[in-house]
Structure prediction request, 267 residues.
Amino acid sequence: MPFMKNVIIDKVNLMTQQLKLSIFAVMLFLLGMIVYLNWKHVDSTVSNIQLEKIVSNQSISEVDSKIQQVSLNMNQQQSARVDEVLAWQADRGWYDTGKETQDDYKTYSEETLKQLADQGDIKALHLLARLAPLELAIQLYTKAAVYGSTFALFNIQETLLTQSGITKENSEELKHPVLIEAAAYIQVATMRGDMLNAKYISSISSLESRFNFQFSGDDLEQANLRAQDIYDSLEAERIALGLGKFDNSIPPAIKIYFKASGIEVED
Prediction:
């Protein structure tokens, strides 16, 4: 009975951390979008130049019609950019930060979810993982990562931390291997192009603060080497499934979103 009690406590703790992860992701997304939408001011400056060209040698009705068209085009462009960010996030498993959520899947039976998961459905894999024992949860999140979810990488990290049972009071010797593995999964997310969440959702500094641990240069190098191994393993599984290599490219609209959120991205 004590063993079962500990298992239940571990699962509750993990679900609490995952809930915090999702809530923080939503808050971060909304903040990022607020800053991102301020780029509309730049579009407005451009539109002023366009309006000056429209007004010259035009009748009032013609000017009014063309101004309305410019305004419509600007709104459509802005909406398209937001939709692109939401779609990019959803493709990587961050459903709850945009229009697309997992609510519809919550009505499915476990059997239906398993069938969808067998086909590589990321939503189904995430939901099953949340309900599964820790070992199985890691397997399901790993499969979701193979199919493209970067959100799964952060959940694997959190599950490993929960499974280890480490706290900030533990010895450096006990914490070291667990935190190296956790740091490696942050790096894998960065390699996949999810730099924003790797900085704000779960970062090296957040691990240091949470577990009273200081990563050395050698530790970070070890984590980077481990990250490459994890990445190569995930990509090998993708290729074996006929999915091809990971697409880590970052579309222009996402780069703007990242920069608006304080993430430097190479053009």
